[in-house]
Amino acid sequence: MLLVYCPYCKVKRPETEFSCRGQAHIARPANPSEVTDEEWVEYLYMRDNTKGVYAERWRHIHGCGRFFNAVRDTVSDKFLTFYKAGEPCPDLEALAKEAGK
What we know:
alpha+beta; 2 helices; 6 strands
């Protein structure tokens, strides 16, 4: 079982307390009324499927209920860092090097 750290509660808890919500740092279109159907499909459904270090959005559903981000190696399932929503994405290449990837 994975242990996930909530940067708001400041606790490490089993993954069953959390829900992964997919790729982090997806920007909503600035002018939704001007977006084409193809652009909406791209925004809503198309995500990277990275093998390696990947930034994900998580929610502490059985705790504070807040969203936060985590960087995880999708090959080893090892979490590299956790950070609050709204904070910038860390340098994924540097984290991969630190992890020996």
